[in-house]
Amino acid sequence: MGLYRIISIGRIQLDCALITTLIERWRSETHTFHLPIGEATITLQDVEILYGMSTDDLPVLLPGNMRFFNRAAYMELLHRLTGFRSEDPDVAIGSSRMQLVPIRDHLVQIHDIITDDSAEVWVWERFLQLRPPLPQLPDNVHIPDLPLACRWVLRRRLAREYHGHHNLPFCRDVLDFLEDAQFIWTPYSEELIGTLPSYCTHGRHIWRASIPLTCLDIVEHHASERVFRQFGFPQSIPTQPAWDPLHYERDDRMRVDDTFIEWLTAQLGIWDNRGDLTPASATICMQRPLFRIMSH
């Protein structure tokens, strides 16, 4: 199904202040948001319940021979993936860089609700002070058989503006002075999950797996062992991340050489064993680590 279900859910207006506040508290070394109450992150559970995207499937990879691609091969791959083909002859011969704006405009023409609001909906489900109101739907409004994020879309026209909307100082204050009672660690009850389509729980057996997540040539680690409380378990004091630091030091300026291909192959081997890589939960709740909150 790919991204079809996200498109079916509909569009939510992006709140740049909210996203900026989250980015300021993101640590690439741990793949978590560092908050006064501990660490939290977007998990495979969130992705599947909120958007219905399959979490237990084959990874999306670049072609193995991509390191030998020339400009024409890159252009052909772009056309196959997006349907976009540049009309600038200088781009095709490599004498000019390709601008990203025309590609985005092309994707918007395909469907005008293409956006990135996954982090925003995650915040609304968990941060009580940052969520907009969820008024009761009228009796004549049909609730579609879609993932959980659709409830925010259905009610967006019924809700008034709320205090945190596009308010960067307010969002920063909420996260700086956040207390346990203001954060919902487990927003998805079994009763709620039971009302969702069956595909929203297809990958449930790996929701807590500590595994690398691969998209094209980028690898990010699903650090579930650092956010046990999001799965209803006590959290021990997180230790130093055990994964290879190369996974967050790499960017698109690095060459796809033999060393990287070997490392990427190893990550895929770990993914293949994902069903056996769920960390054991702590039996007692250890002291919560303290996080230094930087002033703005």
Q: Can you describe this structure?
A:
The protein is mainly α and 296 residues long. It has twelve helices and six strands. The strands form two sheets. The chain has a three-stranded antiparallel β-sheet with strand order 1-2-3. The longest helix has 15 residues, at 258-272.
3D shape: globular
Q: Could you tell me the number of beta strands?
A: 6
The pLDDT mean sits at 76
Unreliable residue stretches: 286-296
Give the percentage of residues in beta strands. Answer: 5-15%
How are strands sequenced across the largest beta sheet?
A: 1-2-3
The number of helical elements comes to 12
Helix content range: 25-40%
Q: Nutshell version of this structure?
A:
With 296 residues, the protein is mainly α. The protein contains 12 helices and 6 strands.
Provide tags for this entry:
296 residues; mainly alpha; three-stranded antiparallel sheet; globular
How does the SSE layout of this entry go?
Blueprint: H1 4-9, H2 16-24, E1 26-27, E2 32-35, E3 38-40, H3 44-51, E4 60-61, H4 71-82, H5 89-93, H6 100-110, H7 118-126, H8 150-155, H9 168-176, H10 190-194, E5 211-216, E6 218-222, H11 246-249, H12 258-272
Parallel strand pairs: 4-5
Antiparallel strand pairs: 1-2, 2-3, 5-6
